[in-house]
Amino acid sequence: MPRIEQRLIEPGSDMERALADLRGRFVAKLGQPLQCEFQKLKDWLQAYVGAGGELLGGCNIRAAALAPLLSKAGEKSGLLASLLKAPGKTIEQKWAAAEDALNNGRALVIEGRGTEISGDKSKFANLTSFHAFVLLQVVEDGERKKWFVGFDPDVSATTETRELWNSLIKAAFDTQDVDLGKWNEKVKDLDRDRLHRILTTMILGTTAHGFGPLVRRYAIDRTKGLEPPYRG
After folding, report:
1. What angle do CA 158, 162, 168 make, to 5 degrees?
2. 22/50 Cα distance (integer angstroms)
3. pLDDT score recorded for residue 129
4. Phi-psi bin for 31: left (phi > 0), alpha (psi -120 to 50), beta?
5. What is the pTM of this model?
6. Who contacts 26 (Cβ-Cβ below 8 Å, separation ≥6)?
7. Distance between CA atoms of 44 and 68, rounded to whole angstroms?
8. How far apart are CA 148 and CA 108, in angstroms?
9. How far apart are the two ends of the chain, measured CA to CA in Å?
10. How many whole angstroms separate alpha carbon 183 and alpha carbon 102?
């Protein structure tokens, strides 16, 4: 389940317009540097900023809190599982309803087993993992293949997200120290400009149009439902 890459987006395409609209939702809610306190970083990212620099938990709680923020005005966020449990509908009709909800601007929280909702390069891609994140839109590529676009706040999920986080922390503290634990612990002391740079780069990337590695496209098998999450 790779992230969205600009080379996959044709200029002037429906995908470009849809993703520009989606990016606008993020930009509006992420706000300006002066509004970026440490708590905002914790609200948006599941990052290595707990006491002692350890990884924060609460993926389902964070996803549930972010979904309303990322829904369009007038649209209520919800749970994908609720749509997939609708009585009297086929599984294809349930997924069609989910697609319509997303493309009307309703963000949906998806949660489940790692093997069901994580790409094969994710640390969650195993039967015993539970994970949750936010689905935001459905887009079609040039071959008319549909992709679900999601936002996963966990900076630890893939090699790409971990490497970007580490590079941003090194830049923020102007260090090449390989022991980043002590620097992660100090993130809470960064000024708002640096916090905002970390937050927006992780989500929006480094260009004026694309996304960072926390926003990804997902190929979902819409001929079946999702396995219940494993909570051990």
Report:
1. 150
2. 29
3. 63
4. left
5. 0.87
6. 70, 151, 203, 204, 215
7. 13
8. 11
9. 25
10. 38
